[in-house]
User: Which sequence fits this backbone?
């Protein structure tokens, strides 16, 4: 039987992983509006992006896309919960 917490979530969870930027600025923690004039502050070193992709794949994530700032990943919900030691909860929007 599948646990209730897993029944209410989709079978695959998609996430965006931000790679450390060259400047140290965090894409997810900035209070500034990100524009075409400052987006390069959030770019990551290409070698670091590639190394992160290799690590994510080795851990079992599916890498869907990559860019100079982030990597889109997917994995089964149970794997996400266990890997990140979090409990994902569904949230419905109107």
Assistant:
């Amino acid at each position: 039987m599948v646990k209730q917490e897993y029944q209410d979530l989709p079978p695959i969870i998609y996430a965006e992983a931000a790679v450390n930027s060259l400047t140290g600025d965090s894409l997810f923690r900035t209070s500034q509006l990100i524009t075409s004039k400052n987006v390069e502050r959030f770019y990551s070193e290409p070698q670091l992006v590639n190394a992160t992709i290799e690590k994510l794949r080795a851990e079992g994530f599916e890498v869907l896309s990559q860019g100079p700032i982030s990597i889109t990943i997917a994995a089964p919900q149970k794997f996400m919960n266990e890997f990140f030691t979090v409990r994902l909860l569904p949230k419905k929007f109107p």
Q: What stands out?
A: The two ends are 30 Å apart (CA to CA).
